TrEMBL record:
Residues 79-228 form the Galactose-1-phosphate uridyl transferase N-terminal domain. GO terms for molecular function: UDP-glucose:hexose-1-phosphate uridylyltransferase activity. It is an enzyme of class 2 (transferase). It catalyses: alpha-D-galactose 1-phosphate + UDP-alpha-D-glucose = alpha-D-glucose 1-phosphate + UDP-alpha-D-galactose. Keywords: Carbohydrate metabolism, Galactose metabolism, Metal-binding, Nucleotidyltransferase, Transferase, Zinc. Its EC number is 2.7.7.12. Residues 255-384 form the Galactose-1-phosphate uridyl transferase C-terminal domain. This is Galactose-1-phosphate uridylyltransferase. Pathway: Carbohydrate metabolism; galactose metabolism. Its cofactor is Zn(2+). PANTHER family: GALACTOSE-1-PHOSPHATE URIDYLYLTRANSFERASE (PTHR11943). Belongs to the galactose-1-phosphate uridylyltransferase type 1 family.
Length: 391
């Protein structure tokens, strides 16, 4: 690995003083560096000089005719790295002894997943992406029910590294770094939404071994789906059955309740009225906004410290870090833009210091939930924990 060669970069200036530098990895996958405002990093980045295998064929998906759901079979993900040591961290900057995924030191880095659940549809400009054999033909095609239906899992999966450090999470970052990540989420949401065949873009963070995390490095992911996910499909149906302003009415209902955890000028965090999980909180903008790309600078600025307070409050519930899924729900790319409001849904199975809620018969098999903690009680505990946090 030659660490002296300098990569050719395309440079773009984003909001909040964040600078984006675009390049490619050795196998043609795209890599983006997002530099903090006032970064101490130089302008140059090293070439990825690894000798990599060709990119795998795009995964396939099969339709469950009983539900209409599409299930992706990404068999190449079976051999993913599992809890590596710091000197073998694939998300750390490359070193002479660690041929990782990111060639240079970085503030925030985003790159295409090497083993994605959803892959490219067509050969890209660099000529390395395999062409999809049987891509979906639109939402009507995917909605049709039939036995033995298959399609290629077109789309894109990206890894978002919040820091070059080996351990941590979004909540351990500085306000400045959190703001850089938010700018990266907005930039990638806009870019991924413009790709052919993409129907929904989903940024998220899995945190903790209890959730199934295989890398302790502080990072999240962005999935770009060729369909509208089942969860969002149910939401669209609820909006159709009630009113176009359903999400605004939900926010107003929650803001008037004792379940509010944290509130700012532009955002409110609350435990929902019918929370399923022992720890469950939503964070919703006061204005109707479909996705990160549509947020104003003021909304992004407030989100950085407010989100950090919320995450650190969740960690303050117990003496050890809380496992969670931080799921940023965004409106579909082509439908529901005027009715589906973006929101965070943060959930944790941790119901006590040494107890975890497992999804067994009723929840796992029938999606019929039983909750052990009243949302009002959960909100009171989380509100007290958040109040103890300074950012």
């Amino acid at each position: 690995m030659n660490t002296n060669e300098i990569s050719e970069l395309r440079v773009d200036e984003l909001g909040a003083g964040v600078v984006k530098r675009s390049t490619h990895l050795a196998d043609g996958r795209e890599l983006f560096y997002y530099d903090d405002p006032g970064t101490t990093l130089g302008a140059d980045r090293r070439v990825d000089a690894r000798d990599l295998d060709p990119r795998p064929a795009t995964a396939a998906m099969r339709q469950d005719v009983l539900t209409g759901d599409w299930i992706t079979f990404a068999t190449q993900r079976q051999n993913r790295v599992m809890l590596p040591s710091a000197d073998a961290d694939p998300l750390a900057p490359q070193s002479p002894t660690n041929p990782s995924e990111v060639p240079s030191l970085y503030d925030v880095a985003v790159f295409e997943n090497r083993s994605p659940a959803f892959g490219p549809a067509l050969a890209e400009a660099v000529g390395t992406a395999p062409e999809a054999a049987d891509a979906p033909r639109g939402l009507d095609d995917l909605a049709h029910l039939g036995l033995g239906r298959t399609r290629t899992s077109i789309g894109r999966c990206e890894v978002v590294c919040f820091s070059p450090d080996h351990a941590g999470s979004f909540g351990t970052q500085s306000v400045t770094r959190a703001r850089t990540v938010i700018e990266a989420w907005a930039d990638r949401t806009a870019a991924l939404s413009a790709l052919p065949g993409i129907q929904q873009v989903f940024p998220f963070e899995n945190r903790g071994e209890a959730i199934g995390v295989t890398l302790p490095h502080p990072h999240g992911q962005i999935y770009s789906y060729p369909y509208i996910t089942p969860r969002t499909t149910r939401l669209l149906d609820s909006i159709d059955r009630t009113a176009p302003d359903l999400m605004a009415r939900v926010l107003e209902f929650e803001q008037q309740s004792e379940r509010v955890v944290l509130q700012g000028e532009h955002w409110t965090a609350f435990v929902p009225f019918a929370a399923r999980w022992p720890v469950e909180v939503q964070l919703m903008p006061h204005r109707h906004v479909p996705d990160f790309a549509s947020l104003t600078a003021e909304e992004r600025d407030e989100l950085a410290p407010l989100y950090l307070r919320l995450l650190r409050g969740v960690d303050a519930l117990y003496d050890t870090p809380t496992p969670y899924i931080a799921a940023w729900h965004q409106a579909p790319v082509h439908v529901g833009r005027d009715t589906v409001r973006m929101r965070l849904e943060l959930t944790s199975p941790r119901r006590a210091a040494d107890k975890v809620k497992f999804l067994a018969g009723s929840e796992a098999a029938m999606s019929a939930w039983t909750a052990e903690i009243l949302p009002e009680v959960a909100a009171e505990r989380l509100r007290a924990a958040v109040a103890s946090i300074t950012v």
